[in-house]
């Protein structure tokens, strides 16, 4: 169930990156060692029903042993999801090698107009190899006037017919670019437009965590439902585990709490510890309406992103 951060290095420097407090160059660049990796897998395996692992970074394909790590997990019957931007020189090589194995790829794509020649070559070669194993994810930014490129990429490379949409969330330190409350209605409108266009291509939207349901009007929520892309987003995360083996709840809350995985007997125990730590803050809610809202539950809206709530609560 965990997200393994194989490295805190990344080939991109996205202004919206909510991992930047935890990444190089802000911290020293570090790859997860073989010893740490194998100890974490042994720890996760103590919960036999946990057979799913996410590999992320930074950019996981920058880890020098990425291929061996994937093979090690597959040999132990884990299902793997890789979170990658596919823009590294290694990405097309790994995409080709792993394309026919049970590995899913969630591909964080910036608009193609922002790619340089090398990034374009790597991303396009990787997508060509991965096909339906790759699902596009991206953040909708208020100033972007076109998100239809995602539909064009899915058609051109025969990718998974689903797009994961994110609202840009803040780090707890506010160090990245993120959406202010007044941006939400602008972005919500763009999401609805994309859902309507996507439906014509039999493509559906899914959603990253932290999108408050009330960013959308009742009418917009109805359109999302009708187009087969109903909003479904809460504030509940798999734990991320850093290259050193430190667990955090999620990258935006990386500076709030961290504990080494070895302090807990099992992954579920670690997850419970973090939920108990964060629960008192959840009562703050995003607005005064949250107290009366039936969606104020972890698997539903839960007030949107807790990092954003805490960032706004200046007296905590
Ligand atoms: S605080 Fe909640 S919504 Fe925000 S990134 Fe973490 S899990 Fe997602
Ligand atoms: S829980 Fe709060 S933020 Fe979410 S929909 Fe309800 S009122 Fe809005």
Explain what the structure shows.
The protein is 32% helix and 13% strand. The protein has 316 residues and is of the alpha/beta class. The protein has a single domain (3-281), classed as TIM Barrel, CATH 3.20.20. α5 links the parallel β5 and β6 (162-166). The longest helix has 17 residues, at 184-200. The model has no long low-confidence stretch (mean pLDDT 95). Bound molecules: iron/sulfur cluster (2 copies). One iron/sulfur cluster binds at residues 169, 209-210, 235, 237, 250, 252-253, 305-307.
**What oligomerization state is this entry in?**
single chain
Query: Helix fraction?
Result: 25-40%
How many strands, which pairing sense, and closed or not: the largest β-sheet? Answer: 10 strands, mixed
- Structural category is alpha/beta
Distance between the termini: 31 Å
Sheet with the most strands: spatial strand order: 7-6-5-4-3-2-1-8-9-10
List SSEs in N-to-C order. Answer: EHEHEHEHEHEHEHEEEHH
Q: Helix segment count? A: 9
Radius of gyration: 19 Å
Coarse shape: globular
Top-tier CATH class: Alpha Beta
Secondary-structure map with pairings?
Blueprint: E1 3-5, H1 34-44, E2 52-56, H2 66-75, E3 79-84, H3 91-98, E4 103-108, H4 117-130, E5 134-139, H5 149-157, E6 162-166, H6 184-200, E7 204-207, H7 218-226, E8 240-241, E9 246-248, E10 259-260, H8 267-282, H9 306-312
Parallel strand pairs: 1-2, 1-8, 2-3, 3-4, 4-5, 5-6, 6-7
Antiparallel strand pairs: 8-9, 9-10
Helix pairs in contact: 3-4, 6-7
Residues 169, 209-210, 235, 237, 250, 252-253, 305-307 line the site of one iron/sulfur cluster.
